[in-house]
Amino acid sequence: MSYITAHWSFDPFVIVAAVLIVLNELGLHRLRRRSRPERARQRRKRSFAFYGGLAMLLLAVDSPIDYWADDYFFVHMIEHILIMFFAPILIVAGAPWLPLIFAFPVKVRRAVGRAVMLSSWARPLRAVGRFLANGLVAVVLFNFVMILWHMPAAFDLAESNQVVHIWLMHSSFFIAGVFFWLQIIPSHPFTPKLSTTGQIGAIVGTNVVMFVLAMALSIFTTSSWYPAYDHVPGVTLSPFADQQIGAAILWVCGDFWAGPALLAVIRRAIDEEGSTSALLDKMLRHRSMPELPEVPRA
Question: Which residues pair with 190 in a beta bridge?
Fold first, then answer.
């Protein structure tokens, strides 16, 4: 029981999460005064998903998961999955963007909006935003970040340097996760840039990458990849067995997010097209050939 109750920590992210909740509630209040009741109720329901995503992040960085991740590789994999997949899924589904913007006074919103959208100094920032919002870029970036930080050199660097661990590894996991899931989950005012076929391909392809990474960590090797876990005092579990358990978690947890996400995309696409056959026709591009005009006889 002490594994669950002990070793909770206070991370500065607790303050960030508290500020975000206050701002979101203030924005919801201001939007409710200018919206239809049904629209306000929808925003309120989505806000619970946003708060759930923040709770997932807090669970990853403040709970015993973060403490035991320093000793056990498989616990570290649980932490990574929470940060890359489940927290971004809930936050994107919660669509907190407009409430967070409307939390600020009108003058501040207009001044910041003009500065970001129109000023010359923000031109590089706008270019980076457009680049990351591209559907293909978001999917490639997500998978690149996932592979990069599980390479032995990068992983051990993050384990030996907390600045790299928190501000580079975990931050890139979360940011890449948000941009990836913005291509799968509609999150007002953002809409996915990928087509239905592209979304299905992104989910299946990313799941395959996770499977390959899991197999590389377990089936395709006979030793531990990470020196940081080779000699941890007090840990009796062998580093290679620890790595194999972590690989199994990657393998199994891939189905936990990919299956529901794939079903949700397919169901949404069927609703949009009207039937399963119409969706298949669109995806497979089975369009009937146009009739050729009759050639008049001489």
Answer: 187
Alpha-carbon distances of 136 from 21, 60, 81, 180, 219, rounded to whole Å: 31, 28, 21, 9, 30
CB atoms within 10 A of CB 55: 13
Question: Who's near 249: CB < 8 A, 6+ residues apart?
Answer: 74, 77, 78, 81
- Mean of the per-residue pLDDT values of the chain: 89
Q: Which of 58, 71, 94, 84 is nearest to 3 (CA)?
A: 71
pLDDT of residue 286: 45
- Global pTM? 0.89
CA distance 101 to 87: 21
CA atoms within 13 A on the CB side of 103: 14
Residue 148 to residue 156: CA distance in whole angstroms: 12
Long-range Cβ contacts of 59-66 (<8 Å, 24+ apart): 60/87, 61/11, 61/13, 61/166, 61/170, 62/8, 62/9, 62/10, 62/11, 62/13, 62/14, 63/8, 64/3, 64/4, 64/6, 64/7, 64/8, 66/9, 66/11
**Would you list the domain boundaries of the chain?**
2-103+134-284
Contact 60, 83 (CB under 8 A): yes
pLDDT band with cut points at 50, 70 and 90 for residue 289: very low
CB 238 within 8 A of CB 63: no
Calculate mean pLDDT across residues 176-186.
95
Task: State CA 79 to chain mean position distance.
Answer: 13
3-state secondary structure of 230: coil
**For residues 280 and 16, what is the distance between their CA atoms, to the nearest angstrom?**
45
